Amino acid sequence: MSVATPRIRDEAPGNVGICFGRSADGYPVALVGETAFAMVPVRNGRHYLVMGWRIRRPMAEWTRSDFYGHAGELADEA
């Protein structure tokens, strides 16, 4: 049984809507407008920033298969 991670919403004026959370796979995820991002592990301790679009389920239900491309390597969550 997994526990849903609540969304953290940035309510700054003029933002298109930014939310952060964790996927069903445990990946850190973000939603900016209709574009979804996740930080997924690859090999040798490296991670990629992957993207998805118009994922209509809650973040806690997102899986790796919801994402289709990557924008490059990330050093860490910071």
Write the layout of secondary structure elements.
Layout: E1 8-10, E2 18-22, E3 28-32, E4 35-41, E5 47-53, E6 69-74
What would you note in describing this structure?
- With 78 residues, this protein is mostly beta strands.
- The model has no long low-confidence stretch (mean pLDDT 84).
- It has strands at residues 8-10, 18-22, 28-32, 35-41, 47-53, 69-74.
- It has one domain.
- 13% of the residues are buried.
- Strands 1-2-3-4-5-6 form a 6-stranded antiparallel β-sheet, with no helix packed on it.
- The protein has no helices and 6 strands.
- The radius of gyration is 12 Å and the shape is globular.
- A hairpin with a 2-residue loop joins strand 3 (28-32) and strand 4.
How would you concisely characterize the structure shown here?
With 78 residues, the chain is mainly beta. The protein contains no helices and six strands.
Mean pLDDT: 84
Task: Report the sheet-strand fraction.
Answer: 35-45%
How many strands appear in the DSSP assignment? 6
Global structural class: mainly beta
Helix/strand order, N-terminal first:
EEEEEE
For the record, give the distance between the C-alpha atoms at the N and C termini, rounded to a whole number.
Answer: 28 Å
Radius of gyration: 12 Å
Which ranges are low-confidence, i.e. pLDDT below 50, for 5 or more consecutive residues? none
Spatial sequence of strands, sheet with the most strands: 1-2-3-4-5-6
Percent helix range:
under 10%
